[in-house]
From TrEMBL:
Residues 26-139 form the Alcohol dehydrogenase-like N-terminal domain. Gene3D superfamilies: Medium-chain alcohol dehydrogenases, catalytic domain (3.90.180.10), NAD(P)-binding Rossmann-like Domain (3.40.50.720). GO terms for molecular function: metal ion binding. Keywords: Metal-binding, Zinc. Transmembrane segments: none annotated. Residues 183-297 form the Alcohol dehydrogenase-like C-terminal domain. It holds the Pfam family ADH_N. It comes from the Bacteria. The keyword Metal-binding applies. This is Dehydrogenase.
Length: 336
């Protein structure tokens, strides 16, 4: 089989790899049918990551099951499934409490799309082994489009977690979104759908702002700190100065969710945070626990994640087009 391999800045190529095989009755083999790039993949392709190439890329996809072990009970060959980005067994203490990104059955940070915690391959591959199929794979409801849901592996479901629990606890909260990619736009969509009283989206990209406005958000290219302006802030830029901006805008006891990958150090306004009493979470997402709820919201008709999909492209175009700067390209197999 082929796996798409990141080999140098702005460069990926198909490389041959052995076909994966079932190694236990709990496993499945899947073939991605609609795969997309995570916001962090753009940083990796631009050379800003912290892992040296080469390695197989990709950790967001809807896939079709092609083989399953005798002990697998929740999916069968032919089923369309969401493949979560992190490897998890579903049975250890962490997994049972929802901390699936911290599964103790595998090395720390085991994931698709980067050789962290072992080499599990990437979801821009012709075939992928899923070591615990019942624990990991989530059947895609028949009324959901695989293209629209290609990001349910990570960014869409992460965005649900960034805002949905907070809006349940704080109905009508004011939400600030400081972003540069798909996560921030998904957050705008979800926040307005779940009753945020105000959503301000800050992004220098005019096309991104146009999409956010379509979701009912106010937008700005830049913004100065707004003292006590927002109950919830979501930062998804990977820039510490923008995280600091978001923190300075929070109301007393406000919450900031940082979904940016901060590869560079920086300073936070710790005294402001102390005086305001803010809560900051910088978290690697335990996405598997949130996928069913995020899919339910997608089915409700209240949201439109398909608006964030910028391009629908043929699978064979991956080497040439993935390194190009697109908001959310989805690569689809012609025979899917």
């Amino acid at each position: 089989m082929r796996e798409l391999t990141y080999v140098a800045r702005h460069t990926v190529e198909w490389r041959e790899a052995p076909d994966p095989r079932l190694q236990s009755g709990q496993e499945a083999i899947v073939t991605p049918v609609a795969a997309t790039s995570c916001d962090v993949d753009s940083a990796i392709l631009a050379g800003h990551g912290f892992i040296d190439p080469p390695f197989a890329l990709g950790h967001e996809c809807v896939a079709r099951v092609v083989d399953a072990g005798d002990a697998v009970t929740t999916v069968a060959p032919g089923d369309l499934v969401v493949v979560p980005w992190s490897i998890n067994c579903g049975a250890c203490d962490n997994c049972r409490t929802g901390l699936t990104a911290h599964c103790t059955a595998v090395p720390h940070m085991a994931m698709y799309g980067a050789p962290i915690g072992g080499n599990w391959g990437g979801l821009f591959s012709d075939l992928v082994r899923v070591p615990w199929a019942d624990a990991m794979l989530v059947p895609l409801p028949a009324d959901l489009d695989p293209v629209a849901m290609a990001s349910a592996s990570d960014n869409w479901s992460l965005s649900w977690r960034l805002v949905a629990p907070h809006l349940k606890a704080r109905p009508g909260a004011r939400v600030l979104v400081v972003a540069r990619g798909s996560i921030g736009l998904y957050v705008c969509d979800i926040a307005r759908a779940l009753g945020a009283s105000d959503v301000l989206y800050v992004d220098p990209d005019p096309e991104h702002r146009r999409i956010a406005e379509g979701y009912g958000a106010r937008t700005a290219e830049t913004v100065e700190p707004v003292r006590h302006g927002f109950d919830l802030a979501v930062e998804a830029t990977g820039r510490v100065d923008q995280l600091a901006l978001a923190l300075k805008c929070l109301a007393p006891e406000g919450i900031c969710e940082s979904a940016g990958n901060h590869f560079r150090p920086g300073e936070l306004p710790l005294l402001d945070m102390y005086l305001t009493g803010v809560t900051l979470r910088v978290a690697r997402d335990n996405v598997r626990a949130h996928i069913p709820d995020a899919l339910d919201l997608a089915r409700s008709g209240k949201v439109a994640p398909e608006r964030v999909v910028s391009h629908v492209l043929d699978w064979e175009q991956l080497p040439g087009l993935l390194p190009e700067k697109h908001l959310k390209p989805v690569f689809v197999r012609a025979d899917s």
